[in-house]
């Protein structure tokens, strides 16, 4: 978990739902955030770099890397739908948490650049709607 998010949620008497004190609920947030870095963040970051950032900087892009990341993102979004959002409103239950905040930050990059790999999942996997 990002230490800055933990500090903000702990130092400012933030509501418990952001990073619950109850260990079982906290473990759910930790589970997603551990998974997030190697999945949601990694694929969207690769796509964003290849499609937006590198062209802005004049750095050559790698179309094969972009296509691979799109395909992997599709699998990641399927996992989000089937593992985390199948029976609940938010990623870790019925209350918003830091896990949702992390996911929203990544998914908003995709929302600003509507890649084909994200479009089929927009209405079902994006936790932005309830927010």
UniProtKB/TrEMBL annotation:
One GO cellular component term: cytoplasm
Domain GST C-terminal: 22-131
Pfam families, per database record: GST_C (PF00043)
GO terms for MF: glutathione transferase activity
Superkingdom of origin: Eukaryota
GO biological process, one term: glutathione metabolic process
PROSITE patterns: GST_CTER
Protein name, per record: GST C-terminal domain-containing protein
Organism: Onychostoma macrolepis
């Amino acid at each position: 978990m990002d230490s800055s998010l933990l500090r903000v949620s702990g130092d400012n008497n933030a509501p418990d739902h952001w990073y619950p004190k109850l260990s079982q609920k906290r473990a759910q947030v930790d589970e997603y955030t551990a998974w997030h870095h190697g999945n949601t963040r990694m694929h969207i970051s690769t796509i964003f770099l290849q499609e937006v950032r590198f062209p802005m900087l004049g750095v050559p892009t790698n179309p094969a890397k972009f296509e691979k990341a799109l395909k992997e993102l599709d699998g990641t979004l399927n996992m989000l739908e089937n593992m985390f959002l199948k029976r609940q409103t938010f990623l870790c239950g019925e209350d918003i948490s830091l896990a949702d905040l992390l996911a929203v930050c990544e998914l908003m990059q995709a929302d600003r650049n509507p890649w084909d790999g994200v479009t089929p999942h927009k209405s079902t996997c994006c936790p932005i709607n309830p927010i």
